[in-house]
Amino acid sequence: MPVRIDPDERRRHVTDAALRLIVAEGVAGVTFRKVAAEARLNIGSVRHYFADHETLVVAAVTAAGDRMGGRLSRLSAPERCGGDAARDHLLSVLDELVPLDEERRAEAVILVEVIAASRTNPAFAPVVSRMAADLHAVLVEALSTIGTARPETEAVRLAGLISGLSLNAVTPHGDVAPDAIRAVLRAHVATLGR
Amino acid sequence: MPVRIDPDERRRHVTDAALRLIVAEGVAGVTFRKVAAEARLNIGSVRHYFADHETLVVAAVTAAGDRMGGRLSRLSAPERCGGDAARDHLLSVLDELVPLDEERRAEAVILVEVIAASRTNPAFAPVVSRMAADLHAVLVEALSTIGTARPETEAVRLAGLISGLSLNAVTPHGDVAPDAIRAVLRAHVATLGR
DNA sequence: GGTTTTGTATCACGCGTGTGATATTTCCTG
DNA sequence: CAGGAAATATCACACGCGTGATACAAAACC
């Protein structure tokens, strides 16, 4: 019964269901039938908003990425002074990007899944490389504020550390606990900028 | 025509085909039919050695892991003196674990694929966590030889860095080039142990 | 009020998959 | 030489999938 519905809300409802499925079963677990069931909708309704399977996944991942980006931009404005305040700022940025609680763990899972999938599925490459570029920019700025010698190399190192910690936290390859993540990040930041 | 064949050689031939498929299409691309075609064998022959799909993938990944472990143990014996020699030793260990050339890139791809898959597929958990444990042990020992203050935390950090660099090197999430990997690893080791 | 648009709901098709069952061929053993 | 084991090769089945086509209901528009 097609009651007039807000399309954006509907799309969000569907992408939320897709995100839950990615967390539960991985990107490969996202099928029209499962998404429709998870969203309590008919397959036809889902297909009315998302033509094909990859469009849906990309939309879902983009929504999750925007959510992370929104949290980051809502952080305190970058400190100009390069002291302990700048270090604290970098740490709070890192805390947003890493699976410390359930919400951020779900986001880390989604990122890891789509990054891994993007290796063989070109449809995911644009959104993944855009996220990498955004992360790199944020890290370079935060590192520069601290006064790091070579911000570009350090940003690559820090991006690798974040990705790897996330990967090792959400998989049996490490089973890294939140406390360990925090300890590692603090140890890392402590060695930065002299 | 069942010519008498060495079973181990046959198994290896099949797992090699499976590994090529993982690199080309990911874990999800490993099906009996594709593996049989890649190995120039009949499906029945493949199934004669590997009962089900996950057994095959686990065997293939285990073979690749053993190959990496073999390379590591073939390195020079751990130096007892904790100076620049110990640092060089750690660097040569890291060079073996990271996608610097085609061979190691393929191995990194396989690891990333199965680690990601192990999150939702319990069948892959044992081999993945065993690999993580082996890596952790190697890193702790190398770091201790250097004289690092807290080898356990530093091993978690270094393991995360390796995983993340590998992930970002083999996917569009970074497209990190070999030179960048080397630079990051050298910068990281330079900050270790005081 | 008739028409168009928007959303919901099914059906059927072809494809690739794992898997069970089963021949058929070849070699080794007794 | 007989028999059994090992290996190879097919067949058929049910399953879940994306997708195209299509029907139907309700709101919106003119």
UniProtKB/TrEMBL annotation, chains A, B:
PROSITE patterns for the chain: HTH_TETR_2 (PS50977)
Domain of life from the UniProt record: Bacteria
Domain HTH tetR-type residues, every copy: 8-68
Residue ranges flagged as DNA-binding region: 31-50
Gene3D superfamilies, per database record: Tetracycline Repressor, domain 2 (1.10.357.10)
Assigned keywords, A-Z: DNA-binding, Repressor, Transcription, Transcription regulation
Protein name per its UniProtKB record: TetR family transcriptional regulator C-terminal domain-containing protein
